[in-house]
């Protein structure tokens, strides 16, 4: 795919959704960090329900620690893997209090050192809470980048590197959300909705699903 096409793809995505953002509910960087950490193998809707209960009682590392492991579990037990997620959350809060005065750090290295936080979560926090032009490649972005040929790669790290290289600067901060939302609602895994896709004429996927 050439750069002109890439530019036009993002122009279209921007036109369709000028201010894209996450579908997770959050008010502070800490709330976003918790929501993202809880979102593995859960839907955003499910996470929002759980965090609404949790944040009503505790939305700082100190308050979560005061709630304790059982307290956290009781608020998020509707989520898959809630046992492990609760343990990670407590460990993460301990580290935030001990090493970062209860604040979410703005550096990638410090974020990735937190229990339960990998590169993808760190990218989401840097991008969405702090406005950095990072791109967190999840399953949706991986699929869209490969299918369209926008930034093909064999694994998420290759796709991330490629996107960081080829996405025009002006679109880089919002690219993350545009691509996730495109994968979630249009370029679906099993049956992409090519008929109602705003970038259909620019996409280089050879097996487009019949255009209605
Ligand atoms: S045309 Fe189809 S395959 Fe290409 S991005 Fe749109 S939905 Fe996905």
From TrEMBL:
The EC number(s) attached to this protein equal 4.2.99.18
Cofactor(s) annotated in UniProt: [4Fe-4S] cluster
Q: Does the keyword Ribosomal protein apply?
A: no
Please give the catalytic activity noted in the UniProt record.
Answer: 2'-deoxyribonucleotide-(2'-deoxyribose 5'-phosphate)-2'-deoxyribonucleotide-DNA = a 3'-end 2'-deoxyribonucleotide-(2,3-dehydro-2,3-deoxyribose 5'-phosphate)-DNA + a 5'-end 5'-phospho-2'-deoxyribonucleoside-DNA + H(+)
Q: Relate the protein's function as given in its record.
A: DNA repair enzyme that has both DNA N-glycosylase activity and AP-lyase activity. The DNA N-glycosylase activity releases various damaged pyrimidines from DNA by cleaving the N-glycosidic bond, leaving an AP (apurinic/apyrimidinic) site. The AP-lyase activity cleaves the phosphodiester bond 3' to the AP site by a beta-elimination, leaving a 3'-terminal unsaturated sugar and a product with a terminal 5'-phosphate.
Family, as annotated = Belongs to the Nth/MutY family.
Matching NCBIfam families, A to Z? nth
Q: What is this protein called?
A: Endonuclease III
What species was this sequence derived from? Kushneria phosphatilytica
